[in-house]
Amino acid sequence: MTDEFKTIANKGGEGYYTEKRSKFLAFAHHVETVDEVRTLLDGYRKKYYDARHVCYAYMLGPERTEFRANDDGEPSSTAGKPILGQINSNELTDILIVVVRYYGGVNLGTSGLIVAYREAAADAIAHCQVETRQVEEIVSYQFAYPMMNDVMRVVKEMAPRIVSQTYDNTCEIKLSIRKSEAEQLRQRLAKLAFLVAFLLTAVTSTAQMKWNDRYQQYINQYKDIAIEQMLRWKVPASITLAQGIFESGAGQGDLVRRSNNHFGIKCHGWTGRTVYKDDDAKNECFRAYDSAFDSFEDHSRFLATGQRYRSLFSLKTTDYKGWARGLKAAGYATNPQYADRLIELIQLYKLYELDKAKGYDKFMAQHAKDHSVSGQPLHPIKIYNKNYYLYARRGDTFRSIGEEIGISYKKIAKYNERDRDDRLQEGEIIWLKKKQKKAPKDYKKRLHYVRQGESMYSIAQSYGIRLKSLYKMNHLKPDYDLRIGDALRLR
User: Is residue 247 in a domain?
Assistant: First the structure.
């Protein structure tokens, strides 16, 4: 695997070729997404509306695996293919070349067309600055503030580019590094991860606990499986979630990453898969699970069948304080502040409200049973506009997401109004069910004002609206030239 590729500079280049009064205007652009390609093509078709043909070819991705060539009415393989041939012969990627033809009244024949489109594309490339770029990968890492010096030492030694960083009780840093070095960076940061839960405890034990977005994300991801467990095993959902947050560092701890163990349960007669890590003693044995659901299920079973926890089940599921103190008294944890920390978490995030639940979201609960693809952690699923969505990661495809979620990748592509083979960009929203026709009721009297870089498609995705519906409710046609500042109705 190479971690370098050739592309053109952002300013692009233009070319020109003429033959028997036919004019061929060529334009080369640096692009990284199919969305960018579509926007540029729409612009050329509008600008050169009087031209006979607007042909193109593009290549995307460091691995050069996503490409397309279009003849736009010219005889098959006489336009798009020669353009693509020039891209390939120069070993370029992340490039779009558009060639506009004005017909001169004389047919050029198959060979003449091939030459003309090839030379026009070659001239555009010749007027571009070719650059060699590194394939970079984003590595995100969350950590407690006291770990700052250790984290920054790793950053200094490996020299990744800092994309963003936020500092609070819990900090997050996003790093971009050469792809061949990304795994080494992850491993070095992972060695620091076992300190997360301990340090978070140290930080919060000296001051009032503060609301933490990562904790809330953990709650959103696992609350339905916690309710399911409560209805089955009678362990309060609030207790399950608070223990999961505390024991796993909100899902970021080393034990979760290596074994899906959210509750720090040690082997103690376990016959399944195991992992070892230092805890109260060195190199202790911990249970390992295939999924988060298996960990939550075993946690409930562990409490329900454990002799020392039997008295807890005489308490109501709404008595979270009694459960927290009972767990500490029964020896679940050695931390003297354990019960207080659980109670603080439950009260701060109002987890006690879940203890009254009579039902749960089965789709979200099912996701906890899903198995990761290619060793990657499961995507957190979010809910908005009566739908479910996730954010694509680097390297994701509709197929890989479909395999993880258990939904046909063809359906997911259709829900997102995309080609099933489209390349996904890191951070883009992927909807998991058919989108709504309107935004939520909150937007009844609110408008969306178009910002730089937005398209009708990206706006529709942001609100979970079907693209066709967004055009219809604003009385616009698909060829409308969207402008910054345009006001769009959302319902």
Answer: yes
Last residue within a domain, chosen from 434, 449, 476: 434
For residue 416, the model assigns a pLDDT of 95
Contact 277, 254 (CB under 8 A): yes
The pair of structure tokens assigned to 272 is 């399944």
Distances, alpha carbon 483 to alpha carbons 108, 449, 450, 480, in Å = 39, 10, 7, 9
Q: Give the whole-angstrom CA distance, residue 139 versus residue 162.
A: 10
For 214, half-sphere exposure in the C-beta direction (CA atoms, 13 angstrom radius) is 23
**Which is nearest to 491 in space by CA: 423, 422, 429, 445?**
445
What digits encode the pLDDT tens for the residues 55-103? 999 999 888 888 999 999 999 999 999 999 999 999 999 999 999 999 9
**Which pLDDT does position 200 carry in this prediction?**
45
Q: Quick one: residue 322, left, alpha or beta (phi over 0 = left, psi -120 to 50 = alpha)? A: alpha
Q: Among the three residues 434, 456, 480, which one is the final residue of a domain in this structure?
A: 434
CA nearest to 136, candidates 164, 159, 166, 160: 160
pLDDT at 207 over 60: no
How would you list the strands of the sheet with 170-178, edge to edge? 136-144, 170-178, 161-166
Note whether 144 and 170 are within 8 A (CB).
yes
Tokens of 242: 């608070």
pTM above 0.70, yes or no: no
CATH of the domain at 189: 3.30.70.240
